[in-house]
Specification:
The chain is α/β, with parallel strands linked by helices. The chain contains 15 helices and eleven strands. The protein has a single domain, classed as Deoxyhypusine Synthase (3-Layer(aba) Sandwich), CATH 3.40.910.10. A six-stranded parallel β-sheet has the order 7-2-1-9-10-11, sandwiched between helices. Strands 3-5-4 form a three-stranded antiparallel β-sheet. It has a two-stranded parallel sheet with strand order 6-8. Helix 3 packs parallel to helix 8. The radius of gyration is 22 Å and the shape is globular.
Amino acid sequence: MPKEPEQSSSRYLRGPRIDPSPITGAERVADLIDRAFLAYNAGRLRDASRLLVEKILDPEVTVALSLSGALTPAGLGMSALIPLVEAGFVDWIVSTGAILYHDTHFGIGLELRQGRPNVSDVALRDEGVVRIYDIFFEYNVLLSTDAFFRQVIDAEEFQRAMGTAEFHHLCGKYVLERERALGLEKKSLLAACYEAGVPIYSSSPGDSSIGMNVAERALAGGRLQIDSAIDVNETAAIVLDAKRSGGKSAVVIMGGGSPKNFVLQTEPQLQEVMGLEEAGHDYYIQVTDARPDTGGLSGATPSEAVSWGKVDPDALPDTVVCYLDVTVALPLLAAYALARHEPRAAKRLYERRHELLAQLESEYRRPRYDG
């Protein structure tokens, strides 16, 4: 009779056995992730899903979401982001302007269509069709969206300096009004965040068609000015309040680029620039296709972020990086979170911006002594 293998004493061999049940086709998404996503980047997506549900979505955690890449043209605003916002799973957002611009197409009743990536772009141009890889839409979609933003920006309430959170909040109000007038149901992330009191910041407000239209109205005599200093201080104030109130701060990063840096720089702003006592964000999830060895911020790891003060070194066990396409990972993460966690009460941070900024200023002006 063969001898039973001895139980290994190695601490590295104490994890669960890889012994999944056969897939039947009847599994729910969350069950499939738990049972079949066991290794490699599937395993990291499962780790991220569980970290999100088991820790990040606790009521005392303030959750920041950063967004880059062409997510809303692919419908991910409607399918994944709006449900997460409405469930109270997102407290504040940093997004590219392009994501919000393309989000607006849907909110004002314009259409984008599924296409193919191997069509002649010369032929598309001749027929007035714009392509985002395998998404097609009429050139008039751009012109109509530009006209909408110019009309909105001309309103009297925009004729002053403001940060991007206030700008996007006001824009969201008008998109929501257009949705309702057209009888549309939950098409725009801007409109959903307006309703939920979720502030949306843009780290590069001039780098999108929204910013281009703001610039055009300035030439026409408009007085709107986007003040990035407001954004830097407001986002730092949100993170400081999360910590000083006895809670924690989490960052969920979809992609990389400027939004990733902007959401993470809140901690260096508090520590390095303002000289306040802080340790870094407590939870960190990133989905990216960028490599770390090229030196770019998009691929930088959470352990590298520790050296900048962006991530608390004691929190490294609660960090996950998934090397996946965001358009694959985001719907799976959303489905897992919505299946495994009950909705949270909305923090409505937009409405608390002035209060949080006053708290930041008070602590910044408090005398501090070196040594």
